[in-house]
Structures are given as C-alpha cells and as structure tokens.
Design a protein that fits this description.
Blueprint: E1 14-19, H1 33-50, E2 63-74, E3 83-93, E4 97-106, E5 112-124, E6 129-130, H2 135-143
Antiparallel strand pairs: 1-3, 2-5, 3-4, 4-5, 5-6
Length: about 140
Amino acid sequence: MGQSSRPARDEFGFWWPVTVRWADMDALGHVNNSAFLQYLECARVGYFEAMGWDSRDTTPARKGPIVVSQTFNYRRQLHYPAELEVGVACSEIRNRSFVLSYAVFGKGSDDLFGDGSTVLVWLDFAANKAVQLPSHVRERLIGR
C-alpha cells in the first residue's frame, strides 16, 4: 500500500480494538505519532497470538518474527476520546521475511486515520540472523 493508495476495510481479516488514552496526546492536542506505532504493535502481537505464536517464548533456541522496518502514513489528526480498530493483513511473503499491512479506522466507520506496513524477518535469536520462513508459518500467513 503506497502513500497515495488508501486501504479499505475489506482488505483486512484481523481486527484489534484500541481505546485512545488521554496520555496518547501531545502538546499540540492530537494523538502523538509514536502512539500510532504502539497501536500497530498491540495489533501485531494480537495477530501473532491469534495464529498460535507464543510471544512470551524467551528460550535461547527460539526462532520467530522481529521487526526490521516500519512505515506509517498519517492521514488525519486523531483526538481523545476515540475508539479505533486496527486492521492487520499479511500483504507479502518472502524467503526469510514477510510484510504486514495495517490500517487504523474509527470504530465501526470508514474514517481512516492512518495506514502502514512492517517488514518482519524470521530470526534465529541464538545466531542473531534471519533464517528461512518455516513452511507452517507460510501456511498460516497465507491462510490469514
């Protein structure tokens, strides 16, 4: 999804609810840019957990997704109070990585506040290097 294209609700199969907190606003009176990235992070973890990935695994031999790049398009100002829904979809699967796309809408509406994407690699944490995506991960990503 490029800067000029606007995602539609029907492009997303997973939704994560977000309640805007007073503390999410900055001195200019709107939601701070960094809060949007936190909303995406919460939605991403929820997406992974819905796929059966345990985000709490801290064993040295673990392998799993890790963010290597992130972009976000701020479409309009957002203010407290607000109820949001963050849509998540896998938009690309590569050899050792995949791309998640996001859109932040007002709850139950087509009001788009922002959209973006995250590139994640499948990391071998002990070796600290990207490895081939396992077939079961590919299958889950394709099925979402």
